[in-house]
Amino acid sequence: MTRNIQELAGRYRDILRQAVFLVRSMDAEGELSIGHLSTLNMVAAEPLRVGAIARNAGIKVPSATEQIIKLESAGLVERVPDPADARGVLVRLTDRGQEAREAANTRRNGSMAQALQTLTSEEQRAIAEALPAIAKLNEALGRGHGPDARQGGPATEHRPAPAHQPTTN
Q: What is the pTM of this model?
């Protein structure tokens, strides 16, 4: 790997880390924590096993289970039998969970839109033009070109939401 690619990777990770911290603080008064909203966004496309949710969130299975229990008691998700494995269960979004997810994403997207309005039109255009490359990078990381590749298993059980679906974690 060239030194330029290593430097770009480091700069990108620094910017991404800062963005994650800022996004997590965007809706502090909202009913859903960033972790809860992230879980709802994960299971919005398709039901997932607890292990997949934990891997995708970068947490241990007991922590994911605790989160799911809280979401389940709030009526936002439900556990259903896995049709592919009688011993397993899947976590599925409920109608109430979908409503809560949409409301939280709308609020957070509104905050992001306000921040984007502080940029010049050229800066907004630069971000818009960079989004496909960032999505491609995310796909490469999800296919196992990141740290999970060395551990023998890419975290690909959760497919990111389509680009047109507004989500903010």
A: 0.72
